[in-house]
Every structure is written in C-alpha cells, then in structure tokens.
Amino acid sequence: MTLLEIRGLETFYGKSQALFGVDLTVDEGEVVALMGRNGMGKTTTIRSICHLTPARSGTIRFAGKDIARLRPHKIARLGIGLVPEGRRCFPNLTVEENLLAAARTGKWTLAGVNALFPRLAERRGQYASTLSGGEQQMLAIGRALLTNPSLLILDEATEGLAPVIRQDIWRAIRTVKKEGQSILIVDKTLSELLPVADRCTILEKGRTVWNGAPAALDDETQQRFLGV
Ligand code: ATP
Question: Is any ligand 1 atom within 6 A of the Cβ of residue 42?
Fold first, then answer.
C-alpha cells in the first residue's frame, strides 16, 4: 500500500522557487532514498512534507489523507517521524527525558531503542548537551522512533560524524529496516545508502528526474545526476 504520495510539488523560499515538480512515493515497509546533488531540493522536499516550508502547489497524501495544509505537529501526530538535518535535541533534558518527551505507544519502546543504541543506554541520565555529535544523532533517531511513526524520515543522519559512529548508525538503520519500518532517507554515502534502499528517487533542480531500483542506477545515470 502507498504510504506517502507526492505529486507536482512546488515550493518557494519567498520569491525564490526551490521545487518545480517533485513526484515521490513511499510504500509501506519500503526504504526510499531521495537523491541528487547539493541544492537540488532534497531537504526542501522533506520540509514541505512536514509543513516546515509549506508547498505552494501539488499534492501530499499520507496514509490516504491530504496533509498539505496540516500544521507540523498534526503531521507528526499522523505518523511522520522526522530526524532533521543538524539533529535537534533538548539540551537541558537528559537522554532518557529526550527519548520519552514525544514517545507514543507502539512497537518501538525505550528498551528497543536502548538495544539499538547501547551508547544511549549508558548515557541515559546525562544532559543531551553533554553528548557528542554522533550520540546526539543517535538520540534524534531514537526519539523519532519512539513516536512510533509509520514513516521515518532521515535527512543526512550520518553527515559529519566520525567513521565508527557512522557505522553504528548505518547498522541501526539496517535493523530498523528489518523491523519493517518505512523510511525516506537522504544521505551522501552511496555505498551504505544503496544496499539499504528498495528504491531511489533522484531530484535535479527541484524536479524528479529518475526513479527506480538501486540496481538500475547505472554508472551513466549516477554520473549524470549525482556526479559520481
Ligand atoms: P543539500 O544536499 O546541499 O542539503 P538539497 O538537495 O537538500 O541540498 P535544498 O537544501 O532543498 O537542497 O535546496 C534547494 C534549493 O533551495 C537550493 O537552490 C537552495 O539554495 C534553496 N534554499 C534552501 N534553503 C533556502 C532558504 N532557507 N532560503 C532560500 N533558499 C533556500
């Protein structure tokens, strides 16, 4: 079943148009990689889905509902869990308080998240402000999972982190996928991203230009749209 369906999305920052027609779908249980070079509109697409930078036109349907006009907290409550670029935690709450702040009952529990990220369990009583960047990213992912979202959105979740921490986060993403979680993911590390993705959607200059299975993403397409 289609969980998220976006058609003809157009989004502006003031007078400057960033998206010119994004089409994107995520099916239940699917991991979709949203790809494209820098500045092509990946983060803007995510911000539009969550109504942080509302779309001017196009349709956004989630679980069969038109969500284009809903406020961000309503969208979160409907089941979209966002881990935004630049991880945001409450610095003056402890790790455990951060995790539980937005928790809702469901498959993901505190114990489950602690098993996924043992480092968080070890630091459960520490203030989030004292965590390393990588630990804060784990906390942001754990917190989103604990809202028990139907769709988890990860925007550059491994960006700028030490290699060993990136490995931990990719391992967690693979585990979360195995649990059947639907995921929309943006990440620059193709060697990790492609094996975890069921489908790729590529943006160029604010438009969807390619959509298909990772195996169909040949060298020519990668060169043309991703510059690798
Ligand atoms: P990156 O990989 O660099 O994060 P991206 O694919 O996520 O890139 P966006 O951040 O969505 O791309 O940017 C799409 C376009 O919108 C770019 O031309 C960018 O300059 C512009 N843009 C992004 N944020 C803003 C903003 N706050 N104000 C004005 N223009 C913006």
Answer: yes
| Span from the CA of 157 to the centroid of ligand 1 (angstroms) | 17
- The closest-lying atom of ligand 1 relative to the alpha carbon of residue 46 is 11
**pTM listed for this prediction:** 0.96
- Give the Å distance between the CA of 201 and the centre of ligand 1: 17
What is the full DSSP assignment across 176-208?
A: HHHTT-EEEEE-S-HHHHHHH-SEEEEEETTEE
Residue with CA nearest ligand 1 atom 22: 18
- Altogether, the residues listed in the chain come to a count of 228
Q: Which domains does the chain carry? A: 1-79+188-228 (3.40.50.300)
- Write out the chain's pLDDT in tens, 228 residues: 999 999 999 999 999 999 999 999 999 999 999 999 999 999 999 999 999 999 999 999 999 999 999 999 999 999 999 999 887 789 999 999 999 998 999 999 999 999 999 999 999 999 999 999 999 999 999 999 999 999 999 999 999 999 999 999 999 999 999 999 999 999 999 999 999 999 999 999 999 999 999 999 999 999 999 987
* C-alpha to C-alpha distance for 184 and 84, rounded to whole angstroms: 12
Rounded Cα–Cα distance for residues 195 and 108 (Å): 24
40 lines ligand 1 (CB under 6 A): yes
